[in-house]
Design brief:
The complex is a heterodimer of chains A (about 850) and B (about 230). Chain A contains 33 helices and 25 strands. In chain A, the strands form 5 sheets. Chain A has a 7-stranded parallel beta sheet with strand order 3-4-2-5-6-1-7, sandwiched between helices. In chain A, strands 8-13-12-9-11-10 form a 6-stranded parallel beta sheet, sandwiched between helices. Chain B has a single domain, classed as Purple Acid Phosphatase, chain A, domain 2, CATH 3.60.21. Chain B has 4 helices and 16 strands. In chain B, strand 1 and strand 2 form a beta hairpin. In chain B, helix 2 packs parallel to helix 4. In chain B, about 50% of the residues are buried. The interface between A and B is large, with 52 and 51 residues.
Chain lengths: ~850, ~230
């Protein structure tokens, strides 16, 4: 393998000659000079290489990515009328629709100024049918699009013609794409593009990552002796100035809204030109937005931007941003990536950033001039988040990065791709297998697994071969696989993509009349996840669309809500930590807790909180895990502090309660946060430990990841949720499309029930295998839990207490938000049945 | 066998005593009558015919549970309350091994297939009698509950499920729903979902002050009053 040459620093005189005259002239007119990394990338691309460019935001990354294409197209000149069909020259793939639109805007400007004769067009889900048809007949030179559109394009019979002349494919924000199933699908798309246009080169654009080798390999075909893509690293810009918000007000023990900080945040908005306020979840965005408007005495233009909002609404906000008409935007990750809008001079992050890379990315939104420092303020929503923000801040200064590894390619994604390839043209199993293995995530895919996925795509892959007559794709006598009928291709197109939305219900506003019955329906406010609505009882109040609403019930396929006469929603609409705490930050938080000499950097109240904890209980050393036991009310509690993130804690909680149950400690339930895990029960677990009836080393032994895990997985609702996603992506269950819900219950089938049937009859089915694989890596965070159990072996510190400790308060406040599973629900039923008997006896 | 041993709960519909079995069947000892509803057999195959290749195991799984119910009660008469098959062609295209299971079960007893909205033509190639509804022991058995029906209706169609809430937790289970005048059966098919008792479709069918949801637990049926569901 060749060693990569890294380029940094000053001009690259040799590269300058590679630039066509129009480019040199343009740079001179602007009074600019091409940056070294831009020229270096051009040189490598000219040498026929695929290249990974690593550059901080504002370093001219996008232009650099297009320079090889633009220079080549400038030299090629305009297509003469009457000449042969020309396919797309450069394909640009962006993770966000908005990003593609944004790049079009930013690219058109220099192209126009240089007078280059080339066409640039976007193609997203919003592109009208007419334009799509026209694009197929007469493709633009540069096509800007999304991973889903690429999947659709290569599944088309015209793909070979459309992409036959392809020279470059540019992947923007590659680091954010590769870690997800979307990245898996994209890697398969890239493998197909290489087959359609063998000379094609890939260019990846990425923010700084810990290990760029994975990305470099991702860009090239996986084959013996194949070198990874070349790498060009642009120098970093000025260090950002990040602070943690200082507030006189009390920092809450738990929660995710940071209501206490709103006046201070508002003052910062007033002091800056344009502020971007990032939050982690949609409901946080709603809450922060609502709170800001209650203090917005100056009526500053403050907008909201999140994924559940109507697309038209979002476009309006984006346009207003670009024109610098807004003073602040409250946004979720829909605005996360490299969108370059307006003159943002401050980024505020409400809630903990959960990972240093994410924080760096978001801070990069402020101030796109590299030589000036970006300004950012972190707003922790609770006390543990103060510690986490401090750890994140330290991480950013030492520039540590924690982008997770991309992992093995998901099998449900592969199933979708296989069907798509059959829609494009008949294929041979051998050839497609080789092609699939040239994609990095699938490089190690065994042939046997591929064949099972193929079988799944054809007839469902069941051991009971009863669906041959309903096969979606069939192997014909010539050995090639073809789609059985046109409906299959249509079904494929409707179900493409790897992003599975939770089932949503419309929320309709209703009025109550004097008698308390509901009047006719009012306007629809938007959509909310069905599982959230099902957890509500009539009369519960919650926040949506900037209003406090009272839940009235579910009618047909709609949730009904009335105006609540309260400003204090009872049910927090927080949908759980969207991102788990990164391993790196967790380590930082543990370090900060253990090291008292660092506490002077923390706000007074947080320091007091830790001091009192030190007095009434103890603070664990960095390598220790603290367990506290204490009584409270009629229950006994055990709180553990692993700091491994909510997902790993949730899994740990499930497994520990099973074990405690078996050891006779009668646990009743548990609740997990990013930082700690609280278990409560009928017996004094501290006493059991003291009497040696309960052994902590045994309780926390790694062997829980064996049989206990298997047994729990069997009944886990988490696995069911994962299965649903896999089943939708793999095409077993069709997506629900807007308007389809109306056709009623008979067309929808519950993924949970399919899961139960499949698990009891064919536990080794390929889709169950895919589900377990995904759950272990994602929702359950097994790997992290395993590493933690290993780490704490022999380092468990137990502290029995008379009452709750300061450190335990946050997790106790979360109790009551978790569903119950297994035996606990049976006892609930039994209890309710007893009520009936008691009522009956009273008469 | 005593009802408690099998986890069943006892109820009366228009004076006729039934036990609600945790496997989802209703049995009247006095008349040797067993009622099941909404089997939705061949649901997987029905979806496969339309391009969604759902697991083909549902029919077999449902019939195996039904066979256990047969063993437990050895009824003289079986009434399947409609939506016996998930689509019109289901019974004709059913695999032979499943057909055999039904033929075996039906031996030595009467079997009534009430028609439902999914299988309005009834069943073909199976033993038993097809009917739109049946009057027996002073009760009326039909697929879809009829609003304003006489006392003593036993119906299916709606797949009732109840949600119990206690201490901020909730448990949702399929149930037999009855107010003493009418009873609506839970769906028996393994791949059938449930509809919450609070749904508008149940409006006007029950006197909610007397409504009891016999909720199906793991191995037991738990009677909970409708008012008691909210805790």
């Amino acid at each position: 393998m060749k060693t990569p040459t890294e380029t940094a620093g000053d001009l690259h005189p040799s590269g300058l000659e590679l630039l066509p005259a129009a480019f040199r002239r343009w740079f001179t007119e602007k009074g600019w000079q091409p940056r070294a990394h831009q020229l270096s990338l051009l040189e490598k691309a000219r040498g026929g290489k695929s290249v990974l460019l690593i550059a901080p935001t504002g370093a001219g990354k996008t232009l650099a990515g297009f320079i090889p294409s633009l220079t080549e197209l400038a030299e090629r000149g305009r297509k003469k009328p009457g000449t042969a069909f020309q396919g797309v020259h450069t394909l640009y793939i962006s993770p966000l629709k908005a990003l593609a639109v944004d790049i079009e805007r930013n690219l058109m400007k220099p192209v126009g100024e240089m007078g280059l004769a080339l066409t640039i067009e976007t193609r997203t889900g919003d592109t009208p049918q007419g334009k799509r048809q026209r694009q197929k007949l007469s493709p633009p030179d540069i096509l800007l699009t999304t991973p889903e559109q690429l999947a659709l394009l290569i599944a088309n019979g015209e793909a070979e013609r459309f992409f036959g002349d392809l020279r470059y494919v540019v992947f923007d924000e590659l680091h954010s794409l590769v870690t997800s199933k979307r990245g898996h699908l994209l890697s398969l798309g890239l493998a197909r593009l290489r087959r359609l246009a063998p000379g094609m080169q890939a260019i990846g654009l990425s923010a700084t990552v810990a290990d760029p080798l994975d990305l470099r390999k991702w860009l090239v075909p996986q084959a013996e002796g194949e070198a990874a893509a070349d790498i060009v690293v642009a120098p970093g810009g000025a260090r950002p100035l990040i602070t943690i918000l200082e507030s006189e007000d009390r920092i809450p023990w738990s929660g995710h809204v940071a209501r206490y900080a709103i006046p201070a945040v508002y003052e910062e908005i007033k002091r800056h030109k344009t502020t971007l306020i990032f939050v982690n979840t949609r409901s946080q965005a709603e809450l922060v937005f609502q709170e800001l408007w209650t203090v917005n005495d100056d009526s500053l233009p403050i907008a909201l931007h999140h994924g559940s909002l109507d697309a038209g609404q979002r476009r309006k906000v984006e346009a207003a941003m670009a024109e610098n008409k807004l003073r602040a935007v409250v946004a979720t990750s829909t605005l996360d990536l490299g969108i370059d809008w307006g003159d943002v001079d401050l980024v505020i992050h409400v809630g903990a950033p959960k990972g240093a890379s994410r924080l760096a990315q978001r801070i990069g939104r402020a101030n796109h001039r590299m030589d000036e420092p970006s300004r950012a303020i972190l707003v922790p929503a609770n006390r543990f988040e103060v510690l986490e923000c401090q750890a994140a801040l330290d991480a950013n200064y030492i520039n540590a990065q924690d982008t997770p590894p991309s992992g093995a390619g998901a099998l449900d994604v592969l199933a979708q791709h296989v069907l798509g390839m059959a829609c494009a043209e008949p294929f041979s199993g051998d050839a497609l297998y080789e092609e699939v293995r040239s994609a990095l995530p699938y490089a190690e895919l065994p042939r046997e697994t591929f064949d099972r996925v193929l079988d799944f795509a054809a007839t469902g892959g069941y051991a009971l071969k009863s669906y041959d007559r309903y096969a979606k794709i069939r192997q014909r006598p010539d050995g090639l696989w073809r789609v059985s009928n046109p409906q299959t291709a249509q079904q494929y197109r409707l179900n493409i993509g790897t992003i599975v939305e939770s089932p949503m219900l419309n929320v309709r506003m209703v009025r109550k009349n004097k008698l308390g019955s509901l009047g006719p329906g009012g306007p629809v406010l938007g959509k909310i996840e069905e599982y959230f609505l099902e957890s509500l009882s009539q009369g519960d109040t919650f926040l949506f669309s900037g209003k406090v609403l009272r839940f009235e019930g579910i009618r047909e396929n709609e949730a009904l809500a009335s105006q609540a006469f309260s400003m204090d929603p009872k049910v927090p609409a927080y949908a759980g930590g969207k991102f788990p705490l990164s391993t790196y930050l967790a380590e930082g938080v543990r370090g900060l807790l253990a090291d008292r000499s660092e506490w002077h950097r923390l706000p007074d109240q947080v320091r007091d909180w830790l001091e009192i904890q030190r007095e009434v209980s103890i603070l664990p050393r960095r390598d220790q895990m603290l367990i506290e036991t204490f009584p409270r009310g009629s229950r006994f509690f055990m709180v553990a502090y692993p700091f491994e993130g909510r997902l790993a804690h949730q899994t740990l909680g499930m497994l520990l309660t099973r074990r405690l149950d078996r050891m006779g400690a009668r646990p009743l339930g548990f609740v997990a946060t990013d930082y700690s895990l609280g278990i409560w029960g009928l017996d004094d677990m501290g006493d059991l430990i003291a009497k040696r009836k309960l052994d902590l080393q045994t309780l926390f032994d790694e062997d829980m990841l064996g049989d206990d895990l298997e047994a729990w997985l069997d009944e886990s609702f988490l696995l069911k949720r994962t299965f649903r996603n896999c089943a939708v992506i793999a095409g077993l269950i069709e997506r629900r499309h807007p308007g389809q819900e109306k056709t009623g219950r008979q067309v929808t089938v519950s993924a949970d029930l399919i899961y139960d049937v499949l698990r009891s009859h064919e536990p080794d089915h390929i889709l169950l295998q895919a589900t377990r694989q995904e759950a272990a890596a994602g929702l359950l965070d097994i790997q992290r839990l395993g590493a933690m159990l290993n780490r704490i072996r022999g380092h468990i510190l137990h502290r029995p207490l008379d009452r709750v400790s300061p450190l335990a308060v946050p997790v106790l406040l979360e109790i009551g938000k978790e569903p119950v599973a297994g035996n606990a629900s049976e006892s609930l039923l039994a209890e309710a049945a007893e009520d009936l008997i008691r009522d009956a006896m009273q008469v | 066998m005593r009802d408690e041993d099998i986890g069943a709960s006892v109820t009366k519909v228009a004076g006729v005593e039934f036990v609600c079995d945790p496997m989802g069947a209703l049995y009247c000892e006095a008349d040797g009558l067993l009622v099941v509803s909404d089997l939705h057999l061949e649901k997987g195959a029905a979806f496969a015919r339309r391009g969604q290749l759902l697991p083909p195991y549902d029919t077999h799984a449902t019939l195996k549970i039904l066979a256990r119910v047969m063993d437990r009660y050895r009824p003289k008469l079986v009434v399947s309350l409609g939506d016996n098959f998930h689509d019109r062609v289901g019974s004709a295209l059913m695999p032979d091994d499943c057909r055999t299971l039904i033929v075996e079960m039906a031996k030595g007893r009467d079997w009534i297939w009430i028609t439902g909205n999914h299988d309005p033509d009834g069943v073909s190639g199976l033993p038993g009698t097809v009917a739109e509804s049946m009057a027996f022991a002073g009760l009326t058995f039909r697929h879809e509950p009829a609003k304003g029906a006489e006392k003593g209706e036993v119906a299916g169609h709606l797949h009732p499920a109840a949600t119990l809430r206690r201490r901020e937790k909730s448990v949702r289970r399929p149930c037999f729903a009855t107010d003493g005048d009418r009873l609506i059966m839970p769906s028996f098919g393994v791949m059938t979902g449930g509809l919450d008792l609070a749904h508008a479709a149940f409006r006007g069918l029950f006197d909610r002050t007397r409504l009891i949801a016999h909720m199906i637990g793991k191995d037991r049926v738990y009677p909970v009053s409708y008012q008691g569901l909210k805790g």
